[in-house]
Amino acid sequence: MSARPRVGIVGTGFMGGVHARAVTAVGGRIAAVLGSNPARTAAAAARLPGARPAADLDDLLATGLDAVHLCTPNHLHARDAERIIAAGVPVVCEKPLATTVADAERLTAAAQGAGLVTAVPFVYRYHPLVREARARIAADPDAGLWLLHGSYLQDWLGDRTADNWRTDPERGGATRAFGDIGVHWCDLMEYVTGHRITRVLARFGRAFDARGPVGARTAVATEDGAVVSFETDRGAIGSLVVSQASAGRKNRLWFSFDGPDRSYAFDQEDPEQLWIGGRDASTVLRRNPALPTAHADRFDPLPAGHPQGYRTCFEDFAADVHAALEGQPHDGLPTFADGLRAARISAAVTASAVHGTFTEVPT
Ligand SMILES: NC(=O)c1ccc[n+]([C@@H]2O[C@H](COP(=O)([O-])OP(=O)(O)OC[C@H]3O[C@@H](n4cnc5c(N)ncnc54)[C@H](O)[C@@H]3O)[C@@H](O)[C@H]2O)c1
After folding, report:
1. Rounded distance between C-alpha atoms, residue 11 and residue 164, angstroms
2. pLDDT at site 1
């Protein structure tokens, strides 16, 4: 690999921009870009100095790339990731890795068989205080975390005229709110606690049964929100509430992992602090580069008191992708295996919501 990875980006919307900034911030070069049509491709290339506008995926791959980042709508991930893997190029694929378990399994097996680096941006893992919580929980096996709960709430689909490819199951997948944001929470819970969800009982709900402009509304098939009860392989119970139509909530990913002696709570909208509950006294731990997590050593944290956030998480994720491309993978980089895990949980949650019964999640 070249000293500065040559990266191709497919999809030039919100995440295409986020990925391009993160890759560049940690020393990569955007060598080629591909949008949904020539005009969008050209506009993106004009924003990204040195990026070649590609005519199609084959043309993008002909650029000679160290990795391709897929930032397109969900239904395109499996098709394009498969072609990139077949070309022998590492893939960073946005979540969901695929909209079916079968596709996610096939992609994961193909990438493993080819020995390729893969990644799926479950970037909330990169908040320093998330790593701190994980390290403390791992060092405290007697913590007895038995109740794992939280939420991921947004309001951007709270307007019935708001529409997006995500509301179309053909493009977004069979689950919308859970598949879009619930999977982030589940990934984070499993990453931080080490617990694995073994079975789920889910209910889906909708704020609106039809969406679109007045006079041209169309029926909606997917959920605006979900309530999920679950059990884990270590005997804990838990619950997760997910919504994309909760007024005033923007990206309220919040968790509380509770034991009789200690509980750990984190809110990604306020990621500079970790609440550690105790029966006699509770502590609010503030982010500080001096905290003893491996995370603080590896990246380039801002001094305490200068808030970091989502963008820094993405940069640290991109740095870990580059390290993996150089043959030095770090613990915590979410890979296709984690994308497959999310697909399995999503499938179980969706089946449970349809049938109204507890559904097993293969571990
Ligand atoms: N990891 C995260 O934190 C995070 C956050 C938001 C979105 N996402 C994921 O990122 C992906 C993209 O979401 P987004 O919010 O950027 O959506 P978006 O609608 O803003 O962008 C998608 C882009 O893909 C383009 N596109 C459509 N068809 C294409 C094609 N055939 N070839 C090339 N480009 C095509 C569209 O024109 C659009 O510019 C989704 O899978 C979503 O789930 C992840």
Report:
1. 15
2. 62
CA of 16, closest atom in ligand 1: 16
CATH 3.30.830.10 fits 125-310+334-360, yes or no: no
CA of 18 to the centre of ligand 1 (A): 11
pLDDT digits (tens, 9 = 90+) for 279-331: 999 999 999 998 878 677 788 889 999 999 999 999 999 999 999 999 999 99
Q: Determine if ligand 1 sits within 6 Å of the CB of residue 268.
A: no
Domain 6-123 class, CATH top level? alpha beta
Domain positions in the chain: 6-123, 125-310+334-360
Instruction: Note the pLDDT tens digit of each residue in 225-240.
Output: 999 999 999 999 999 9
Question: What secondary structure does DSSP assign to 224-282, as a single string?
Answer: SEEEEEEEETTS-EEEEEEES--TT-SSEEEEEEE-SSEEEEEETTSTTEEEEEESS--
Would you say the CB of residue 14 lies under 6 angstroms from ligand 1? Answer: yes
